[in-house]
Please model this.
Amino acid sequence: MLKLLVLVLLVTVPIVSCKKRKKTFDSGEKKPLDVDVKGLQDGLDSLVQGLESLETMFGVVEEAGDLECGYVCKNGKKPRKNPHHKPRSNGCGSFGLLIDTRDVPEMTRCCDKHDICYDTCGNKRQDCDDKFKTCLDNMCEELSRTLSADQNEGCQMTSQLMYAGTMGLGCKSYKEAQKRACICDEDNDWLDKKPIKSSKAFGDL
Model:
């Protein structure tokens, strides 16, 4: 599955590492996202070399996404909220690999909301993933007002790949986030567990 994440990054990184145009805008007007179309094509070529087609990748992701992914206590009881835990985010990325979205703050906000949703006890993974997709779709729709056709297509592709990566790789991150956010009655050591301060604790989100 880590290989799948790397393939997703091959396409996503060139897009989200783009630079904003130098053109000036009115204070109330959004600056467009300057998508590197050549970088997008190079990324797609790399992806195709590893898979028979782009549809193959999404087929694998959809199959993984259909698997049930939930968090329950060992005794079968419903976990309860850890009063010492505060939901947090580590930005866009997973398994210690971060995607540079500094030039696309709208995408960073979507990732932050998704991380916090995973990191809140009792939230269902599917609900978090659905909200993430909606956030990404809304981002592209908002930016489309100032994007060219090619740039808008690049935004849509990035959105799809970000969501695909979450569907294919998010279960482990979700369960680990829920373990930090929740308490199971049999886990007495969790009752007095203090919040984890190290950012490394979120390396798998």
